[in-house]
Amino acid sequence: MKLVLVAACALLDVDGRVLIAQRPEGKQLAGLWEFPGGKVEPGERPEETLIRELHEELGITVAEPCLAPLTFASHAYESFHLLMPLYVCRRWEGTPMSREGQALKWVMPNRLRDYPMPPADEPLIPHLTALM
Ligand code: C5P
Q: What pLDDT does residue 47 have?
């Protein structure tokens, strides 16, 4: 089966809230909430992917040492296997803004269950509540 590598990042603010983004209409899994990130392009390391994607999607600048690996999601979708490292980041430059029309929300990790997520993302939630 095809293997897809996606890097995701939990941005945590000073109150311990995490930023989630809603997948826009027209995309697979539209309407579901996810941690910002995206596909790891050939030749990229996941950290490089996140620096690129967080800038493109949210307009923020992240320094690589501020990206701390937390865990991995591994999920078999019908047509591909998704492997998704999740990083945590508490420091960045700029204010996250929606640059691609996606809705954004800051939520406490113990409220993430109120926001439907793709099946690959759901097992990540306990790793974030453990940080509270
Ligand atoms: O974001 P993008 O559409 O490039 O991601 C590729 C695929 O990986 C999605 O179609 C979705 O099935 C899966 N995905 C996911 N959880 C995410 C991001 C992507 O399950 N947070």
A: 98
